Amino acid sequence: MRKLLMSLLMAGSLLAGGIGAALADDASAPASAAAASAPAADTSAAPAAAAASAPAAPAASAPASADTSAAAAAPAAPTAPFSVDSSKINSGDTAWMLTSTALVLFMTIPGLALFYGGMVRKKNVLATLMQSFAITCLVTIIWTVVGYSLAFTPGGSFIGGFSRVFMAGMTYIKGDKATTLTVSHLAPTIPETVYFVYQMTFAIITPALITGAFADRMKFSAMLVFMSLWSIIVYAPIAHMVWEPTGWLASAGILDFAGGTVVHINAGIAGLVCCLVLGKRVGYGREAMAPHNLTLTLIGAAMLWVGWFGFNAGSAVAADGRAGFAMFATQVATAAAALAWMFAEWAAKGKPSVLGIVSGAVAGLVAITPASGFVGTLGALVIGIVAGVVCFWSATWLKHKLGYDDSLDAFGVHGIGGIVGALLTGVFAVKDIGGADGSVILQAKGVLTTLIYSGVVSFILLKVIDMVMGIRVTEEQEREGLDVSLHGEHVE
Q1: What is the pLDDT confidence band of residue 177, given thresholds at 50, 70 and 90?
Q2: DSSP per residue over 122-140, as a string?
Q3: Average pLDDT value over all residues in the chain
Q4: Rg of the chain over CA atoms, in angstroms?
Q5: What is the CATH number of the domain that holds 267?
Q6: Domain of 312?
Q7: Distance between CA atoms of 428 and 30, rounded to whole angstroms?
Q8: Among 178, 230, 246, 413, which residue's beta carbon has the most beta carbons within 10 A?
Q9: Beta bridge mates, 174
Q10: Inside any domain, residue 292
Q11: Number of structural domains in the chain
């Protein structure tokens, strides 16, 4: 553990030096690569994109010189949120994004809550459900106050500005003759309020995923403080770097369609650091810690699968063909990963388990997330199969070999699965689908940046919180169960 944490700190120092050197030439990075990596890259309603997608006029209708002049006069694509007339809003896109927003929120409550809740021991089920529900409430407020502004408004290469703090400037004005409202430059066909809440659901589920790594042993009060700070200091900068076109990783050409780096690698490495800093559960490796209710886990996994279509297909930010392709890739990869994990476990242990097949499905969902808007059939199949086998290996052999107590395999599934998906996006990206060529080297840059930044800052936050208020429950509270000791309730 000490060697791993020291390595993370040393790597963080090196990364900080590299970031400082990169600041001087960030502005010259290709804007086209940034557009390819942003969730809204596919939308056709931005002024420049609308001109590009319009049918070509007949050749005889205007001289070539006029065409050239018109092209020169075409407005540049917007680089910040702006106001539009309500007639510019696409009702189909808006309806799909409202649906996708509900689907992604459904992934956390009740999906992830039930998925994690069924895997812990009975004495901790309410505490586990409480964590997901409380994080949903907490991050909603944080995102409204400052998170969205730091993540999705122009600023520097590594963090956004303060133009949307407390939703300042986000307007809807109903007039007698016309209605105006603001839209994001990343989603100009839908109201900015819809894009705001859609991205909020991503900000909610990411810290909720971390809780699986330290299940059964973290103070509820410390968890709330950690998640508040982590959402602002870790999640918002990573989201800005990857998805805001001016962000460092976006301008470099990193491809992350729906959150392989921003959500899964980010949460996975933070979860690993949490379980290392907190230490193992009392009795880990000596006492039985079997899931108390796999029925809940299977139901939660099924909810995650359904909700994930909003996660991936919704990241097209339009009701269009790319959303359909992302949905298709998600379904194929998830099924392939579930079967791959099941057969790997069957071969290794002699029996296929319910926990195994649902864990494999989640691993496939995780791995296809960064690739869903960039890959075709072959890519989806291979990513799913590789994710199922590799995540089974990481959640069984690797975890036991290294000796860390990742309670519900947050790192083994989300961290490792996110890495697999991000790297294989560089292998299987199809330019005709996503508008960008893949590069494993560039993808590795995004992976390493996320691992180092999130890992180092998470470690520092945990250590500071531990010094101030303590982060772990007492052994007596842990043995009694967190339901009773922290919340005064229990399940009969």
Answers
A1: confident
A2: GGGHHHHHHHHHHHHHHHH
A3: 87
A4: 23
A5: 1.10.3430.10
A6: 80-487
A7: 21
A8: 413
A9: 179
A10: yes
A11: 1
